[in-house]
Design brief:
Heat Shock Protein 90; Rossmann fold; 3 domains; 7-stranded mixed beta sheet; 18 helices; 12 strands; globular
Length: about 600
């Protein structure tokens, strides 16, 4: 287990005469700051610096680039040392403020170094360099949210020293496009500061709850019921962690969702091939980060108990063909051969859950295979179909074969390289297999490879009830869409994407504003709403209010960055379609097209009955 994910130590019950509440708050804050995934973030920051230097090499003075990158990477290495020192020494609470003060200093230095890049000669006048630099700065600012936001003044300094120079430079330019960029950066600054404020507030609530729990433990210890004390503290600490993670996940998903929308809108406006290549790489990076967050979301869904298997009879072959199509290029990029054997069996289980299991197994095989091949095949054994994923990878020692199904456990990733995932893929496989009550097996030899297999029920013949793929058109032209979200940056990103699809967009930041738009005209075709709105209102309430007002059922999609299991259950029970931020524009468009087509079919059937 990599130490980057080490859990902060619990504060031991203490005598109130030796440490006051202020010191307790500082000690908890220091633990949160120094026990987050800083090593992973610093590695990503170093990669961002290197990529920036490479792409600006022919635009900016070489000496400046080398000095700038040396200082930033040197600071990253220094932070690796300071974090390791803090975790190793476990300084007393009285020294917490000294350690916390390192964060504002780091924020000012890092922010200033990134902020100055917009003033390098030639950058603002070179479209390719400017696009790359803008994307890097937005990404670094979003990543800094996780590092600095728990101590808000450091994040304000960080974002200010990065974004204000860009905003100032754009608004002092005579170029109208630069004014547009200045406006976008200003809106982004506002959104990111609001997200930082929300995260800081969640951290403070978490700390207050933990300290209250510690005081309770102290009181109970005087009554010699230490067993009950420990149980209560563990329960409360777990609740505190869940609340904090849910809030942090939501606030991280919001800017990432907006970034994905802007990248998608940017893709359709780029004509320069070299710039297009950069944007394609950024799309790959944002998709990878989305996949990591979605893996965490899958764990939340399983914890919430909202995933219910829907077993049916279906052909196995189409699933295997989709997997080969999706992973062929990934395997080829590592000079591996992906071989998928035709399997014409009909099986009985939940098709989507089985496909997720097989995708995770194939992805895991590719990730840990450096040469050779990956083979996906199946065979009929008695009345069961055994589906196997073979690889010629690093293999797994016998003593580790149970551990690999634990969350965050990875055999060969001590540096927490994000390209090797989070260590959640096999944990999700195990829990889905248990949910489906299908057998999951592993055979492996170190340095020779591994074979994962799942065994599912075989169906003798094709059932007439096997679901056929629904065909629908992907034409959204002139579709009237109501977008409800209380964050201006999200609404702007949604408008850019939807207008690229030739939709007509109505925006609202609240239910009341949405109702005002509909007061005289109820002709809308689709509702896209955030789950959490202002004044404790929800997207579910917004959809129902509009349905009641319009006296018709309008296709609707709820978009949310909330991973709280209770929220997931509420959204699922509502019966409306739910997508989790960051949402892939392609996935959003596909679901919108499907829902609109289904709505047209129902309307046509109703008209036939009436006639």
């Amino acid at each position: 287990m990599n130490k980057d994910n080490t859990t902060p130590p619990l504060l031991e019950p203490v005598d109130r005469t030796t440490i006051n509440r202020s010191q307790q708050l500082l000690a908890e804050l220091a633990n949160i700051l120094f026990y987050q995934s800083i090593y992973t973030i610093l590695t990503g920051h170093a990669l961002a610096v290197i990529i920036t230097v490479i792409f600006l090499w022919d635009t900016v003075n070489t000496n400046w680039l080398l000095i700038w990158s040396t200082v930033l990477i040197g600071q990253s290495l220094y932070w690796v040392y300071r974090v390791g020192r803090y975790r190793y020494t476990q300084p007393p609470a009285e020294q917490s403020q000294k350690w916390i003060n390192l964060f504002p200093m780091a924020a000012i230095i890092t922010g200033s170094l990134w902020g100055m890049t917009i003033y390098w000669p030639g950058v603002i006048d070179n479209p390719t360099s400017l696009v790359l630099l803008d994307i890097m700065v937005l990404g670094v600012t979003a990543a800094g949210l996780a590092v600095f936001a728990p101590y808000l003044r450091s994040y304000v300094a960080f974002t200010g020293f990065i974004l204000v120079p860009f905003i100032t430079r754009f608004f002092t330019s005579d170029n109208s496009q630069h004014w547009t960029l200045g406006t976008m950066f200003l809106l982004y600054l506002i959104v990111i500061l609001i997200s930082g404020h929300n995260m800081r507030r969640a951290v403070r609530k978490s700390i207050d709850l933990r300290i209250e729990n510690i005081d309770l433990v102290n009181d109970l210890s005087k009554q010699n019921i230490q067993a009950e004390q420990a149980k209560e503290e563990a329960v409360q600490a777990d609740l505190s962690k869940s609340k904090f993670l849910a809030a942090a996940s939501h606030d991280l998903r919001q800017p990432l969702h907006a970034l994905g929308l802007f990248v998608d809108a940017l893709e359709n406006r780029i004509t320069y091939p070299e710039v297009r290549n950069i944007v394609d790489n950024i799309r790959i990076s944002t998709d990878a980060l989305s996949d990591l967050l979605n893996s965490l979301l899958d764990i939340s869904k399983l914890d919430a108990g909202v995933l219910e298997p829907k077993p049916t009879d279906f052909l196995l072959k189409p699933i295997l063909q989709r997997i080969q199509t999706d992973f062929d290029e990934v395997a080829s990029s590592k000079s591996l051969r992906l071989e998928v054997i035709d399997c014409d069996f009909v099986i009985h289980t939940d098709p989507s859950m089985l496909e997720r299991i097989l995708r995770n197994l194939v992805s895991n095989a590719i990730r840990y295979t450096n040469k050779g091949h990956i083979k996906l095949d199946c065979q009929l054994i008695k009345n069961q179909v055994q589906i196997e994923v073979h690889d010629t990878g690093i293999g797994i020692a016998s003593e580790q074969q149970l551990k690999i199904f634990e969350e965050f456990y990875q055999i060969e990733n001590p540096e927490r390289d994000r390209r090797k995932g989070l260590g959640l893929g096999l944990a999700i496989v195990k829990r889905l297999a248990d949910l489906l009550t299908i057998q999951l097996a592993l055979k492996s030899t170190p340095n020779q490879g591994s074979t994962f297999s799942v065994t599912v029920p075989f169906v003798d013949s094709i059932s007439s009830q096997i679901a056929q793929t629904t065909q629908f058109t992907d034409d959204l032209q002139n579709t009237r869409v109501m977008v409800i979200d209380d964050e201006a940056m999200i609404r702007l990103g949604m408008r850019n994407v939807l207008e690229e699809w030739h939709c007509m967009v109505l925006e609202a930041e609240s239910i009341q504003q949405a109702m005002d738009h509909l007061s005289s005209d109820c002709h809308i075709d689709m509702i896209l709403t955030d789950y959490r709105l202002r004044n404790n209102e929800t997207g579910i309430e917004a959809i129902r209010r509009i349905h009641d007002h319009c006296l018709q059922t309008i296709p609707a999609i709820i978009l949310t960055g909330d991973t709280d299991p209770q929220r997931i259950r509420e959204a699922k029970d509502s019966g409306f379609h739910l997508l989790h931020k960051p949402v892939s524009p392609a996935k959003l468009r596909s679901l919108m097209s499907y829902l609109l087509e289904e709505s047209r079919k129902k309307q046509a059937e109703a008209n036939t009955v009436n006639n």
